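Quick log. Single chain, no ligands specified.
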Amino acid sequence: MITTTRRAQDRIEDLFNLAPGDGSGANRPAFSQQEAEAMLLVADWARQAGLEPGVDPFGNLWCLPPGDGPFVTSGSHVDTVPDGGRLDGPLGTVLAVEAANRAGGRRGVLVCAAEEAARFGAGTLGSRCMTDKLTDSDLARMRDANGHDALSARTKYLDALRELPILEQAPLERVLAHVEVHIEQRADLRERDLSIGIATTIAGPVRHRLSFVGEVAHAGETPVAERHDALCAAAETVLLAEKLCREYAPHTTVTAGTLRVHPNALTSIPGAAELGVDIRSVEGGRAQRLLQDLLQGARAAADSRGVTLNEEPLSASEPTTMDAAMVRAAEKACGGLGMRYGRCVSFAGHDAQHVATATPTALLFVASENGVSHAPGEAADWRDVEAALAVLVELMQGLLGGVA
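-> predicted structure:
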């Protein structure tokens, strides 16, 4: 007889094998045919567990227990970053199905769509639309590298899911509580000799685009005093971001993650440089304060070179404090089973932070073996995975009686 852990491993491999990336990772972009195929596979597993799958208007997969009464849910996502790891998303999704398989009853599965930000420059699209944080107009303004907007992509994605029932709305009003399980995305828990982390806070990301506009000129014939080099101004800003990241640590971080240069020619002085910046903090207001420090430095760098700076806010949100009663309930479940657990924070964004605005929500992390995330090297000790599943089953059972 196949064990729960073996089945979970096999199903994670099944999801991976749907769309291997160009390297050794997985490639299931947000609102893509590959994400839709993964959703259909999960829906089939859910049927085997006695659940009834359907898709809400925002692309999220709901696997509902029979009847029309209240229930608790668990789940994560199945889309990936380019050449992503096996566990980010699928681990929590597969464990949610296994929890329904193991315990049955009023346990459902919620798999949110388009969680990763890699394709459209914004993530958690399914959960944010479901909780009225994004509109169709917002999606229409988001575009991928090929110019496709997120709203049109979602329409094609939903068409690929047409064999599933389309729900008129997300049944959030029936959800007593939600639990998301996720692979840890750093090495904190392993360093603390813990198997499970219980998130108390999820960082609020602030994202900005800085466009420096100078003058294209000949690399050999233009004296340095006459140059208006957009890339130099951007480069100074990148180094300032690194400096501020050290100064604001450990509760706030900043990354200059994208850079586009025009004309991007070896023999030309860059006339334009576009920089994408990601700031995250688990302390209210700190991300905005860091942003202001960064913008002040970017303006000074631009002015000193006779370069114009255009500033474009992309998104901004404050940290999410997880429901205290849910944290205690998770601790009770871990303690009752003798698990090694502790509280933690998450600098990565998760659907849980948005679902938490609609229903009591917990976010649990399974210890990473090596701290690798968003890459093929993601790994976990399967004994920790089995521990997380036991906690999930125990926690969901307790939540059916109301959050303690």
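The chain has two domains: 4-202+319-399, 204-316.
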